[in-house]
Amino acid sequence: MEKLTDQVMQNPQVLAALQERLDSVSHTPSSYIETLPKAVKRRINALKQLQVKCAHIEAKFYEEVHDLERKYAALYQPLFDKRREFVTGDVEPTDAESEWHSENEEEDKLAGDMKSKVVIAEKEAEAAEEPAPRGIPEFWFTIFRNVDMLSELVQEYDEPILKHLQDIKVKFSDPGQPMSFVLEFHFEPNDYFTNSVLTKTYKMKSEPDKADPFSFEGPEIVDCDGCTIDWKKGKNVTVKTIKKKQKHKGRGTVRTITKQVPNDSFFNFFSPLKASGDGESLDEDSEFTLASDFEIGHFFRERIVPRAVLYFTGEAIEDDDNFEEGEEGEEEELEGDEEGEEEDDADASLKV
C-alpha cells in the first residue's frame, strides 16, 4: 500500500492537481480573513455593525415605499372601477373613450376604403343577429387562460366558475398596521357558491432577520390566509367523492363506503398551506407549494391587476417573453466573452 502511495505521489500530474487544490483552498475569502491580525478583525466586526444599521435604514425605506403604494393605489382605483364598469357592461364607453390609435395605423388607413364598403353590410347583418353581448365577456377568465402561471392551476371544472369573475382588486394594509396586502376576487351571482367576494391576504415582513441580517433584500411575503368558500350543495370542486370496497376480516362480507378526498382546483388557492411559525420545518414539497403561492400572489399584485387589459390581449405576455429572451441572449453573449478572455489569457501565458 505504501509503495502504491509513493508511486502516486511521484506522479507529476497528481502533484500538480493537489497543489492546485491547495491553492484554491488557501485563497478563499474566509481563509484570508482568518490570517488577518486580531486588530484588523476587530475593525471588520465594526464594519459589520455598520452594515446591520444600513439594513435597518433600508427597511425603513421600504416601509415608506409601501406608504407610497397605498397613496397611489387610491389614485388608480377610480380608473380600475371604470374598467370594471366597461368589462361588466354596466357602462358603455363614449366614442372618445373608445378611440385608440394602433401601431398599424397606416395599414388601417389604406384598408379604410375596403372597410367602409362593408360597413353597410355589417350593419344590416347586425340588425338580423342576436343582441350584442354585455361588456367584455370572459375578460378575467381569458387572462387566466393566457398566463401560464395561472392556467396551470385551472382545471376544466374550474372554468365555468371563473367565467363569473368580474373583477380582481388589491387592497394595501392601513397606516400603522403590519405590512400586508389583500387580493379580492369579485364574482357575480352563480350556481357554485354564495360568496360575492373571495379574499387572499398576504402578510409581509420588511425588517432584517436577527439571525441573518445581511440576507435582507426588501419586503418578503412570509405567510398568507385564505377564506371560507360557501359552496352550494354538490358544487364544491375542491373535493371529490370516491367509493371504496371494504372486506370484513371475520365474516368475509364486502361493503362499499364513500368518502371525500381533496381534488386539484384553482379554488384551493383560497385554502393555502400555513408557513411554519413554531420552529418546525416544512417538507420540500410543502415549501415549494408555499413559495409558488407567494409568487402567484405577488404576480397578481404587481402585474395582473395593474395591466389586466394587456394580459387579456396578450401584449403584456409578449413583452414578458421578449424580456426573458433578451436576458438569456445577454447571458449567452457574456459566456462567450468569458470564453474569449480565457482563450486570450491562455495565449498570453503561452507567449510568456
Automatic annotation (TrEMBL):
UniProt xrefs under SUPFAM superfamilies: NAP-like
* Compositionally biased residues, Basic and acidic residues: 98-112
Any one annotated GO CC term: nucleus
For this UniProt record, the keywords arranged alphabetically read as follows: Nucleus
Cell compartment(s), UniProt: Nucleus
This protein's record includes keyword Transcription: no
Give me the ranges of the annotated region Disordered. 91-112, 316-352
Pfam families xrefs: NAP
Q: Which GO terms describe its biological process?
A: nucleosome assembly
**What main location does UniProt list?**
nucleus
The entry's family comment says:
Belongs to the nucleosome assembly protein (NAP) family.
Recorded hits in PANTHER family, A to Z, give: TESTIS-SPECIFIC Y-ENCODED PROTEIN
The molecule here is called Nucleosome assembly protein 1 like 4
